[in-house]
Amino acid sequence: MADIKIFSPDTLGKPLGPYSQITRVKASEFVFIAGQVGADRDGKVGDFDAQCEQVYANIATALESVGAGWRNVVEFTTYMVHSQDIPKFMAYRRRAFPAFFADGNYPPNTLLIVDRLVQEPLLIEVQTVAAL
Q1: Which of these, 35, 54, 68, 70, could form a disulfide with 63 (CB 3.0-4.6 Å)?
Q2: How far apart are alpha carbons 75 and 96 in whole angstroms?
Q3: Residues contacting 38, CB < 8 A, separation 6+
């Protein structure tokens, strides 16, 4: 098991959302999960909230496929199409992350607003790095 320490030093100030500033990792292996979008296995896409649910369900499936779980995640990079969806994104994370990360140490997350994703109806994509 990787030695993962997730924290936010006081010298950087409080994070602006449900994430931490730093992850320090000692691991024998890293897993890089391609950006997961809000489409299910059959390609079905819902509204922004449904896409958030599906993105993180897809990440959970990817983690499970390598024998990992949420405790192994060391970083997220989030891409969104509309800045107006940021409050919905933060609300989703505030609801879901306590179940994913019971210790309250949420991995660092970089949030980027982009012109579009690979298909027009997709509104959010999350890339994940995990340590084993």
Answers
A1: 68
A2: 16
A3: 45, 46, 48, 50, 51, 52, 53, 54, 55, 122, 123, 124, 125
Helix, strand or coil, per DSSP, at residue 48: helix
pLDDT in tens, 25-65: 999 999 999 999 999 999 999 999 999 999 999 999 999 99
**Which residues on adjacent β-strands are paired with residue 127?**
77
Between CA 83 and CA 103 the distance in angstroms is: 29
Q: Comparing C-alpha atoms, which of 132, 86, 76 is closest to residue 107?
A: 76
| Whole-prediction pTM | 0.93
Q: Which domains does the chain have, with CATH numbers?
A: 3-131 (3.30.1330.40)
Q: Which residue is associated with the tokens 């890089």?
A: 32
